[in-house]
Amino acid sequence: MKKIKAILIGAGLRGQTYTDYALDHPDQLEIVAVAEPIEDRRNYIKEKHHLDEAMCFEDYKPLLDLGKIADVAIICTMDRDHYEPAMRAIELKYDLLLEKPIAPTAKECADIRDAADRNGVQIIVCHVLRYTPFYMTLKKVLDDGLVGRIMSIDAIENVGNVHQSHSFVRGNWGNSQKSSFMLLQKCCHDMDILQWLVGEKCVNVSSFGKLSYFTKENKPEGAPSRCIEGCPAKDCYYNAVKLYLEDEKNDWFRCAATKKTAPTNEDVKEALEKGPYGRCVFDCDNDVVDHQVVNLEFADDTTISFTMSAFNKGGRDIKIMGTKGEIVGDMSQSKIEFYDFAARTWREIPVEAFDENVGHGGGDEGIMRDFIAYLNGEYTGKSIADIDISCENHMIVFAAEQARLQKQVVNLEEFKKSL
Ligand SMILES: NC(=O)c1ccc[n+]([C@@H]2O[C@H](COP(=O)([O-])OP(=O)(O)OC[C@H]3O[C@@H](n4cnc5c(N)ncnc54)[C@H](O)[C@@H]3O)[C@@H](O)[C@H]2O)c1
User: Does ligand 1 come within 6 angstroms of the Cβ of 172?
Assistant: First the structure.
């Protein structure tokens, strides 16, 4: 297998995760340059991958001005900063590993897809769930006909109350104008995975949902705008001092809040005093929904009911109902059970073990492994989707958001024609 050389654009949490793969698999992947404005993050990549200073940039533009210096560009900037580097890298004929969402509007997603087709480059969107042992097992047993014809699916994306507060209230994705709307940023994974499992075209969607709880009206009486100023709501689940300062093991939250790779308590304290993560969750600039449902109808009559909600512990649940039996799956436990109509019994479907320390149920490592095999022409699995499929599945998300906002049923074909 040929070693793939890559440049990294955006060395935040996602960029660090994907490029860490090169440290464990130096025979497969080499990082040759980085663009990242935050010095601490840029230096993290520089040191880990032994880069010359000349290969470390504060912005993606001078890096891409060098022309094509590697096989792949890994693009892990924020949602609204995917489009420009992606379009420039495509013109340079880089293959892309592109973070989701492809872009914040349907038109920009289609532009990226068309540019990729024109330039003959591969773009794999980081729909990491496709590469988890849990969903790979589900896909295999469904394709093997275990449940017969799929009739209905109930799927729940349990965002988790604390995760919601961190990412979708205080953090990067709370305000849709700064990032994108909730269904796109969080549940484009779910729409993609559901379409993949069903294996048919989605034809109609409807949706309802609102931001109802993480709002100013629910702010406890006397609560200051920052938890660190001393909040009278002693039992608040979202107290930033408890979540970020006192929980020293929570690297994810602490690194995101401080934008540092190894933050001290002093760094965290400063972030809570001045930065967005110190704010009262009931006094932020968030506008994305905290609960939403989407109904989907597919060309083969399969119907899906999908719920995204902040009000739970976290994880994904799925129930797949077919003509020969029913599957119940819990991704956080990596557990799949099958009720067989013929035998009238439940049995467990084994899911390949994965290292619990690797992110997204094994998906972060899985996507890197499969992406590299794919570029080498050695990929034989079912998970990889090209940009045409990813773009098509993003369209379900845009159509669902239109359905929510306009309280309509949206037909996918008509929606795409209207673009
Ligand atoms: N696939 C998944 O499951 C998954 C999970 C979380 C986030 N994401 C997506 O990944 C993307 C990144 O998320 P993150 O959590 O790493 O965010 P982040 O804020 O930690 O990282 C983004 C980085 O881009 C850098 N950046 C900004 N402008 C730049 C420029 N001009 N040139 C180069 N770098 C620049 C920022 O300084 C920052 O370090 C987002 O689009 C997000 O929606 C995907």
Answer: yes
